Amino acid sequence: MAAAAQEDVDAIGLSILSGAHLPICRRVLELIKEKGLEGLQVFVGGIIPAQDIPELKRLGVAEVFLPGASLQDVVRLVSGAVAAP
Fold first, then answer.
1. How many CA within 13 A on the CB side of residue 55?
2. What are phi and psi of 31, to 5 degrees?
C-alpha cells in the first residue's frame, strides 16, 4: 500500500489463485480506507467462484476477471474505471 500511495497510482491489480480472495480483498480494501486512498480502484483476477463476485463487488472491488477474460476487455474496463473525470 505504501508503494501505491507513494507512486500515486490509480489502480491496484490482484491476481489470486489461492482461494483466499475474500479475506485478501477485504484487507486490501480496509488498508486503502485506512491510508486515505479511497479513489484507488482495485481489480482482481484469478480462480474466483462466480458466487463470490457479488460479495467482492459489495466490498468495493471495481471488477473481477476470471480465467479466459480477453485482454481487450481487461484494458477497456480498467481504462474506463481510471479515466480522468
1. 11
2. -65, -40
Domain ranges of the chain: 2-64
Which position has the grid cell 500511495?
Answer: 5
Predicted TM-score (pTM) of the model is: 0.87
CATH H-level superfamily of 2-64: Cobalamin-binding domain (3.40.50.280)
CA-to-CA distance for 3 and 24, rounded, in angstroms?
A: 18
Residue-wise pLDDT for 18-48, tens only, equals: 889 999 999 999 999 999 988 899 999 999 9
Grid-cell match 477485504, residue found: 26
With a CB cutoff of 8 Å and minimum separation 6, the contacts of 18 are 24
